[in-house]
Request: fold
Amino acid sequence: MLTEINENKLIQIRVHLKVILAEGMKIIGENSDRFNIYQSLYKRYIYCFDSLNILLKDFGNETIYRGNSIAIILRASLLDYLTTIYLRTYQVEKKAGLKSSYDEEFTKLLSEQVRRMLIVTEADKKTSAYDHKSFCRFVDRIYLNFDFLFDKSKPLDYNKPIKSLKYTKQDDINPKTIKKRLDNFSHNLKTIDYQHVISLYDIYSKYDHFGVMSMMLEEMEINEVCENMFWSIFHIVDGITFCEELLKDEVKSKSNFEKIGHELSCLKGTIYTKSLYLSEKYKNENK
Reply:
């Protein structure tokens, strides 16, 4: 059964999310450049909290099955958080005047999905779904919008367009790459428990991919579900804060983050607290 403190935390989390979402959506509207990585990451954090807010409405013993959808949503944001920290470590080096591959890492991150979309095997070309003219038009659109990802010294080959990209599969920024970087940078990350973030991300990956572990996780008791969820939210709040700093430093955002920052801190406090009393009147008003 859901404990009283976890029930109270769920109510109070939604109270904080109401303000966070209102402020977050306003900030998204103020930062709407096309194909801007930090603005897009910020949107993803806020959209995650929006979906979470909906799923947490009346979340309890009878609706524990929503934990599956919540896990998949939080998994994506936990990876966004790890990606944000990863880029932040290189940006810190750059700001300090140290040798840094920040610009290169930034480009690698953008290149990965483009490379995957441009891969067409010989077997794919033989299927009825493949249309070479349509594929060529798609390649042209990608090249037009993201020409900086391509090596201009390599002529574009429509049969294998990935050969013209600057980066290959070995350059992909995956969770393993991120962990290695954070381990090497750990002396500067003493207040960031990225190992816990990775652990939660791994747990939620089992929800996203079917198998024996995903079936075992379906049997988790609701307070265990809440424990993972609460700590994931706690870490994602830090991801939003780091993203705000990158928006100010790299995008020169003029948005006022003070109100949302205060509410994010209160949200972390709600999760961290060992005791939380809410009156019945307050509960009924905010359920």
Observations:
- Residues 168 and 252 are 31 Å apart (CA to CA).
- The mean pLDDT is 94.
- The two ends are 18 Å apart (CA to CA).
